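Why should sequence recovery work at all? Because a backbone constrains its sequence more than one might expect. Tight turns favour small or flexible residues, buried strands favour hydrophobic ones, and helices have their own preferences. The token representation captures these environments compactly. In the example below, the structure is given first.
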């Protein structure tokens, strides 16, 4: 615990070394922790910037707004039309780079308009793995990552969040809805809405961690291995299939390998 506290104190020192910051805030585990730390370190010189887009679930936007209101943190909303970003809708393997380039360009502009000197975001040391082309966009646009600089991992962020009484300490990880589509599958507002409603169904049924992956007109449901037996119980199974078919999916499949982060990258092989 002493080492963990040292890392937190290092994070606060890093943040205090900045004149003012705009925190790219989605309401997730990492950005919530970073925003609270920035607010504690800098007071009114820290603000949240939340981007409204078709791939950002309304539920997440509502939770982000409620957090800022509860903690008295200034929150600035801005919008990005992702469907107008060249290449985004075609969903190539570097879609995340294309998207994050547009999003962080807008956040930087919004920060400058509001007199905020730096833009910080919540990636941590665990984000160095897997296939993450979006990290290149952060480097190109000189976006700062204080959690990585303080050598904080996801587990450590959750532990510190719990100590600080943050409601997100045990919140599941939810990447943007665009990550649910197999590469090459065209993305549209209608399909994103289908995914959002499908995952809301899973949440309403009491599942904690999940993904609805899209392969054409097939929805592939990922759940933690321990939740698979519950999902195939007659009542639950029928509710899932009925809801997802009513949303427009022709087929509903349960992935027997269970939930795993970044599963859409498994087909990329060495072409990363």
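From this structural description, the recovered sequence reads:
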């Amino acid at each position: 615990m002493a080492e963990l506290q040292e890392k937190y104190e290092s994070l606060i020192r890093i943040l205090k070394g900045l004149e003012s910051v705009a925190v790219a805030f989605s309401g997730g585990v990492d950005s919530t922790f970073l925003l609270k730390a920035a607010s504690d370190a800098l007071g009114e010189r820290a603000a949240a910037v939340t981007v409204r887009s078709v791939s950002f679930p309304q539920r997440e936007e509502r939770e982000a707004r409620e957090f800022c209101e509860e903690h008295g943190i200034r929150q600035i909303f801005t919008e990005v039309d992702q469907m107008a970003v060249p290449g985004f809708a075609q969903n190539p393997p570097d879609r995340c780079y294309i998207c994050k380039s547009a999003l962080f360009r807008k956040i930087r502009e919004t920060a400058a308009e509001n007199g905020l000197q730096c833009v910080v975001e919540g990636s941590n040391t665990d984000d160095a793995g897997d296939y993450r082309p979006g990290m290149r966009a952060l480097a190109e646009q000189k976006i700062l990552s204080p959690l990585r600089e303080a050598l904080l991992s996801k587990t450590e962020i959750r532990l510190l969040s719990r100590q600080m009484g943050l409601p997100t300490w045990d919140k599941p990880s939810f990447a943007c809805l665009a990550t649910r589509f197999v590469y090459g599958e065209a993305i549209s507002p209608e399909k994103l809405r289908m995914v959002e409603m499908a995952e809301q169904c899973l949440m309403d049924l009491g599942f904690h961690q999940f993904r609805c992956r899209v392969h054409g007109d097939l929805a592939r449901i990922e759940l933690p291995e321990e939740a698979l037996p519950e999902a195939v119980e007659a009542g639950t199974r029928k509710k899932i299939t009925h809801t997802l078919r009513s949303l427009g999916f022709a087929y509903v499949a349960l992935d027997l390998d269970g939930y795993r982060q970044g599963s859409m990258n498994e087909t990329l092989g060495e072409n990363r």
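A few observations help interpret the result. The mean pLDDT is 93.
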